[in-house]
Amino acid sequence: MLYILLSFLTGINIVINMMLNGKLAQREGMINGIIINYLMASISSVMLCATMINAMPSYSAIRSVPIPYFLGGFIGVLTTCLFNVVVPKIPTVYVVILRFIGQMLTSAIIDYIYLNIFSKGKVIGGVLFLIGLIINAKVDNKYKQESLKLCENT
């Protein structure tokens, strides 16, 4: 039960982080926003490591980590860049749902490649979410256009 709650709280943190980074990038520019974001992340990481100094791995343990695993930082920066571009342009709920669909379909691909498990349910669920999002976006757009027409007529 604890892990379910922590996963839920992580989801909340991701959305808040995404919105704050998007607003920061709008205000300060994308590059400055990313630098500020990762500078604060570095400071936070150093503080966390300082409080957990006994749990720190040795240099030899870090050296044995395969090189591709170090790409996580690069992917994090790339993800932040992409969200800084997207967040100001489309409603937050769409960003969150599209991110979820991407995560779901990517996890299905990774499960297939590494575990030889194909999950029709994940793929079908992702496609249904995407179809629902497209329909919802069209309905939202229709209502937005109707509202604009009403405002122009008054």
Question: What would your notes on this structure say?
Answer:
The chain is an all-alpha fold. It has 6 helices and no strands. It has helices at 2-28, 30-51, 59-63, 71-86, 92-115, 120-153. 6% of the residues are buried.
Secondary structure topology:
Layout: H1 2-28, H2 30-51, H3 59-63, H4 71-86, H5 92-115, H6 120-153
The proportion of residues in beta strands is under 5%
Report the structural category: mainly alpha
Based on CA inertia axes, which overall geometry fits? extended
User: What is the mean pLDDT?
Assistant: 86
List keywords for this structure.
extended, 0% strand, 154 residues
Quick take:
The chain has 154 residues and is mostly helical. It is built from six helices and no strands. Helix 1 packs across helix 4, helix 2 crosses helix 4 and helix 5 runs antiparallel to helix 6.
